[in-house]
Amino acid sequence: MTISVEEVYETASMILYQNLDIRTTTLGINLKDCIDSDFGAFRKKVYKKIHSHAVQLVAQAKILEMKYGIPIANKRVSVTPVSLIMESHCEKNKFIEMAQTLDKAAADAGIDFIGGFGALVQKGMTRSDRMLIDMLPDVLSQTGRVCSFLNVGSNVAGLNLDAVNRLGAMLHQTAVKSENAIGCAKFVVFVNAPEDNPFMAGAFHGVGEGDITLNIGISGPGVVKTVVAQNRECDLTKLSEVIKRTVFKITRAGELIGRELAAALNIPFGIVDISLASTTAAGDSVANVIEAFGIERIGAHGSTLAVALLMDAVKKGGAMASGNVGGLSGTFIPVSEDEGMIEAVQAGALSLDKLEALTSVCSVGLDMFAIPGDTPEETINAIIADELAIGIINNKTTAVRVIPVPGKKAGDTVVFGGLLGTAPVMPVNRFSSKNFLKRGGRLPAPITSMRN
Amino acid sequence: MKKELLFITVIGEDKKGIVAKVSDFLYRNDINIEDINQRIMGDGYFVMTMLVDIKTALIPMEKITEGLEKIGQSLELRIQLQHENIFKMMHRV
Questions:
Q1: Which residues of A touch B48 (CB under 8 A)?
Q2: Best mutation site among A2, A5, A8 for testing chain B: the one with the most B CBs within 10 Å?
């Protein structure tokens, strides 16, 4: 079974010229066994458990990078939803202290983001859940690495509008308290949140998971764009086929790294998340893939079909390649982290409304987009609720990561820098849905028969 | 003794001395070349692949990578060292 020069060259060029990398290796860590009535002892146990495992993750990932010549871009940790472990320590200052403990454990181990400072509130909120939400502006502005999530709905529970209604005000406060509103970039609100998602900012270690598990996120928009560009004339069936084959290959690379890394760490291998994820690097853009299909700019009519084709082909190729596909698995279209998305917004090709339409066929939702700082909190809540309704009714995960930037208006630009990129501030609808949103309550779980 | 096989991929413009320099480096470090192939690709790149066994190598993998990178820089070529498993996983079902 010899490997041909062409095959070796294909793999090497994916890595050298098309930005193929293992986007994230995320260690899911259960913190329930750290709970202690003595809060100081509790924090020590949390620090020790996270730090000891995370240090190993960083060291072993480096060895595998060398062995396979493939970059492992991010090493991260996700933990048990923090509201859950804080139920018996429900005091404001303790939430801050716990966040600081997570932040320090991550920093000391060389981890850039730690996820899980969140709550599962799809049906209702406990005192701890409410306090956690209230403390988010302080937590997200006072820590550098802690990421937060909320799951506010599911197919079986419906949508908790009372939880959503707290978010606009929370995001405004977070934006004001943190430089450039950056704290908001570390918070994601979901429906149908997967418990094994390795991607930040929404990663958490679900309550149905084991003690420790390793999840892998692969990437590769640059690789898919190259193969699409090599097939300019083919029809949609063939296009889907060539994408499937390419995604199959990159998922296999993820599976290999995941298995070996888990074995080296002596922990179970969780899942491979086969999401195409953009980065701010040139050529690493999902929008550019869609444009290589033959669409002038993402957001033009036809973009929803294009994203649907891409998503489906990515899933089919990935599912064939790995028996452990999980997480979000699809295609991310964050605005600020994707140069093609940024250009499309600036050129007037992509509006918030079209972005919402794209998310109905694409994971994971409205991601990393900036809106004017004076957007009313009810409007932010309504943007979130609309996006999440798409997920509930269509049996899929959807999420929102929105950044209301103080002092900025539509058309301005905000530079977050680093992985988070640059966001053009997008205009929002100026009409109000306040009276609808203030009804509160819960959108009942949808009927699952009669699906048309 | 079980072999530990890796692929060396050399990408760039064809020129004299590529095989000589790489194989000299491998010989000095007791690394056996199991197979060697080269091709001009459709996009015009010269590509050479070497399958090597590093089981008896005198230096650890990071030093091999380092040495190859130096040769790559001196010849203005990209040189990658990767364990064969990644190719097997990606290109064989």
A1: 5
A2: A8
Residues A67 and A180 in one domain: yes
Q: Are residues A107 and A148 in the same domain?
A: yes
Structural domain boundaries, residue A421: 215-436
Beta bridge partners of A114: A77, A146
- Residue numbers of chain A with a pLDDT score lower than 50: none
DSSP three-state, residue B89: helix
**Per-residue pLDDT at B14 exceeds 80:** yes
The yes-or-no verdict on residue B1 having pLDDT over 80 is no
* Cα distance between residue A316 and residue A321, in whole Å: 9
Q: In chain A, count of helices (H) and strands (E)? A: 15, 15
Closest CA of chain B from A365, distance in Å: 30
Amino acid A1: pLDDT: 60
Cis before residue A277, ω within 30 degrees of 0? no
Interval B36-91: pLDDT, tens: 999 998 878 899 999 999 999 999 999 999 999 999 999 999 999 999 999 999 99
Name the E strands within A30-126: 72-79, 114-115, 119-120
Query: Are the beta carbons of A16 and B62 separated by less than 8 Å?
Result: no
Spatial CA neighbour of A333 closest among A357, A316, A312: A357
pLDDT, tens digit, for every residue of A383-411?
A: 999 999 999 999 999 999 999 999 999 99
Q: Are A15 and A71 in contact (CB under 8 A)?
A: yes
* Total number of domains in chain A: 2
Q: What is the pLDDT of residues A345-375, one digit of tens each?
A: 999 999 999 999 999 998 789 999 999 999 9
Amino acid A420: pLDDT: 87
Name the residue among A8, A10, A15 with its Cβ closest to that of B7: A8
Domain presence at residue A328? yes
Q: Do B49 and A70 count as a contact with CB atoms less than 8 A apart?
A: no
Q: CB-hemisphere CA count at 13 Å for A79?
A: 33
Residue type, A372: P
Tell me the two tokens of residue A124: 């209702």
User: How far is A63 from chain B, CA to nearest CA, in Å?
Assistant: 9
Task: Say yes or no to pLDDT of B7 above 90.
Answer: yes
C-alpha angle B73-B79-B85 in degrees, rounded to nearest 5: 160
- Are the beta carbons of A253 and A272 closer than 8 angstroms? no
Query: Has residue A415 been placed in a domain?
Result: yes
Residues A97 and A186 in one domain: yes
User: Which residue of chain B comes nearest to A66, CA vs CA?
Assistant: B62
In degrees and rounded to multiples of 5, residue A175 shows phi and psi of -65, -40
Domain co-membership, A145 together with A241? no
For CA atoms A381, A386, A387, A391, the dihedral sign is positive
Q: Which pTM value belongs to this model?
A: 0.94
